[in-house]
Amino acid sequence: MPRTPPLDGPRFAFGTLTVIPVRVHRWDRTAARAGMLCAPLTGLAVGLASAGLGLLLLFLGMGPLLAAVASVAVPAALTRGLHLDGLADTADGLGSGKPAEEALAIMKRSDIGPFGVLTLVLTLLAQVAALAGLYGDSWARGALGAVVSGVAARLALTLAARAGVPAARPEGLGAAVAGVVPVAGALAVGAAVTLAAGAGGALLGPWEAVRAAAAVPLCLVPAELLLRRCVSRFGGVTGDVFGALAETSATAALLVLCLGGTG
């Protein structure tokens, strides 16, 4: 297996998954493998920015709801809304009832259909409501939620790029990263993210440590179910599917973090 220079992985991850101005020097499968293994790092950066803006508004006295809206807006801005667009397009494709080729064509259209609009609205409402509840409990819980959900969203991408998951199209981001990550590597990254989430939660107490650590594997369950449905329905993954997986995982992580109220 060709060796990848240390920065090629982060460059690929930040250059393809965020709007942060990073030049991607390589676009081959080896760089893609390293990049998808580094995907949670982009989630950490996005999550910290999300938490930072939310806390700023909270400390300015604007309240938990506006802080939550700001925290949800940051990931959308730092990805040009591509993950949300992917969620809407995937919902339209799945809801169309059309054969795979026709469903994929629907997903490539620039407009958003009724399934996409409904899914998008409900997902954003769930994210805002969950974060508002967390910020309402304490600024620290809100910040932790923003960071954990950001990292968990990108971890879902690492797992979706694992070996054995095919691409639905021969072109696009889905084709570039489909099947590039060894299963053992994906599991190792997942374990590291779970431990890191637990460590972050431990700063707020033992119950928060358990809840934050549990949020990572639990949020991946609906993402994995969606992934399998998309592979079965479309024949593989696309860039839109990756976006849908990220938003699904992020939302599920926030909901898990809300379980049980304050510790």
TrEMBL record:
InterPro entries membership: CobS (IPR003805)
Any one GO molecular function term: adenosylcobinamide-GDP ribazoletransferase activity
Entry keyword set: Cell membrane, Cobalamin biosynthesis, Magnesium, Membrane, Transferase, Transmembrane, Transmembrane helix
Keyword Transmembrane in record: yes
Subcellular location: Cell membrane
Pfam family, one: CobS
First-listed, main subcellular location of the protein, grouped into a coarse class: membrane
Physiological role: Joins adenosylcobinamide-GDP and alpha-ribazole to generate adenosylcobalamin (Ado-cobalamin). Also synthesizes adenosylcobalamin 5'-phosphate from adenosylcobinamide-GDP and alpha-ribazole 5'-phosphate.
Protein name: Adenosylcobinamide-GDP ribazoletransferase
Annotated organism of origin: Streptomyces bauhiniae
